[in-house]
Design brief:
Elements: E1 7-10, E2 18-23, E3 28-32, H1 35-41, E4 54-63, E5 66-75, E6 78-88, H2 94-109, H3 119-123, H4 130-149
Antiparallel strand pairs: 1-2, 2-3, 4-5, 5-6
Subcellular location: Nucleus
GO molecular function, one term: transcription coactivator activity
InterPro entries: Mediator_Med20 (IPR013921)
């Protein structure tokens, strides 16, 4: 009789020994890679939504102190969007280098440079962690899922 909460299980090739479980409007759990096996054993308590599998695969580039990952976001067999992840490696407090990141992204993204991510609003002067990256990917994937649900009108 209880309403279920969504939990997203995510993996990142930068952290191959970790598994990230992000709860809807809640915390991010970081576990070892065997977390998936545990979830299979708990299938009586969790319902798997296989149809919602979404991923971003692409290429990783390094330019001086910047790490840029460009990926194609796919849902099932079809491409749904493009992800661009930019990291300034020497800095661990994201707010300290946000202006530098913006300037760098504007050099190759132009008008499509995004605004400050929502995860920064709660981090202020905290150390940026891999969980913060996963939260941003989850936000991107949820935007793409919502775009998929909007009916498309045909043009004659």
């Amino acid at each position: 009789g209880q309403t279920g909460k969504l939990m997203y299980v995510m993996h990142n090739s930068e952290y191959p020994l970790s598994c990230f479980a992000l709860f809807e409007n809640g915390p991010c759990l970081i576990a070892d890679a065997n977390f998936d096996t545990l979830m299979v054993k708990l299938k009586g308590f969790f319902q798997n939504a296989k149809a919602n599998k979404i991923e971003s695969r692409g290429t990783r580039y390094q330019y001086c102190d910047f790490l840029v990952k460009v990926g194609t976001v796919t849902m099932g067999p079809s491409a749904r969007g493009i992800s661009v992840e930019v990291e300034y490696c020497p800095c661990v407090i994201a707010n300290d280098c946000w202006n530098l990141l913006m300037e760098f992204m504007q050099s190759f993204m132009g008008n499509h440079t995004p605004g400050i991510p929502s995860v920064f609003g709660t981090k202020h002067d905290s150390i940026y962690s891999p969980a913060d990256t996963m939260v941003q990917y989850m936000e991107l994937f949820n935007k793409i899922r919502k775009q998929q649900q909007v009916p498309v009108a045909g043009i004659r």
